[in-house]
TrEMBL record:
Domain called Glutaredoxin: residue spans: 18-82
UniProt gene name: grxD
Protein's UniProt keywords contain Transmembrane: no
Protein name from the UniProt record: Glutaredoxin
Keywords: 2Fe-2S, Iron, Iron-sulfur, Metal-binding, Redox-active center
CDD domains documented for this protein: GRX_PICOT_like
Record family assignment: Belongs to the glutaredoxin family. Monothiol subfamily.
Residues forming coiled coils: none
Organism: Candidatus Kirkpatrickella diaphorinae
InterPro entries in the cross-refs: Glutaredoxin (IPR002109), GRX_PICOT-like (IPR033658), Monothiol_GRX (IPR014434), Monothiol_GRX-rel (IPR004480), Thioredoxin-like_sf (IPR036249)
Length: 111
């Protein structure tokens, strides 16, 4: 894996407080797991950016090596790797994601 890919990934994570590496785009997720994470973030009113790993094979493989996590989607909040779909959904359901967003001072749209 090239350092260049890791630098590109790190730049995305550093630039956007909430960054989701996913299959597809937030308006058109292309896998059920990515769609579930998008639903959670949308429900919580979080502003977030996405990278469609299907458009770039280097990013798709690079993000797995970068995080040492084998699956996509991958959610990062303020530079911290949170996890994939199951972890994000569990955290949402038990309130941990809400606490993490508060702790990291991530603003949310008011319902």
């Amino acid at each position: 894996m090239s350092q260049d890919i890791f630098q590109r990934i790190q730049r995305e994570i550093d630039t956007h407080p909430v960054m989701l590496f996913m299959k597809g785009e937030k308006l058109f997720p292309q896998c059920g797991f990515s769609a579930r994470v998008v639903q959670v973030l949308n429900r919580m009113g979080v502003e977030y950016q996405t990278v469609n790993v299907l458009e770039d094979a280097e990013i798709r493989e690079g993000i797995k090596a970068f995080s040492q996590w084998p699956t996509i989607p991958q959610l990062y909040i303020k530079g911290e790797f949170v996890g994939g779909c199951d972890i994000v959904v569990d955290m949402y359901q038990n309130g941990e994601l809400d606490s993490l967003l508060d702790e990291k001072k991530i603003e949310r749209a008011k319902a």
